[in-house]
Design a protein that fits this description.
Layout (H helix, E strand, L loop, with lengths): L2 H4 L5 H21 L7 H10 L4 E2 H7 L4 H13 L3 E4 L9 E4 L1 H22 L4 H18 L2
Antiparallel strand pairs: 1-3, 2-3
Helix pairs in contact: 4-5
Amino acid sequence: MNDAALDNNASTESSLFYALHLLHRSFSQNLRHEEDSIDPAQIGILMSLAQGPLTLTELARQHHVTPPTASRSVNLLVKAGLVTRTVPEDNRRITLLALTPEGNNKRIVLRERAEQHVSDLLSSLSADERDTLDTSLKLLIDTLQK
């Protein structure tokens, strides 16, 4: 356990960062037990491409990685049949990345698994504690979307 998380005087920022770390680690461990699991970075790519096609450069920027790093993950997703690369007729200098129908189905299944995993983790909370958490998360989401 992290000392900052145990400290009642820990900043909101430290507590949030630590909670995100624990949630990511827990979900990653849960994924490793699945026979058809993919890397957490690849999950992020599937989630990003669900918003619409992107160039590799746009995708790399969204994920705060270099294009070669993003390219390695994309190559694996293309080989798995989850992502396609297309060159638009009106601009042959770029390549667009998009989800295949199988990639979109995989994204939906992974999101459902993630939501079930979080539900299982939170099952020990009382109704009042869940209401408090829900209210706080809505405030956080509203703040982040500004």
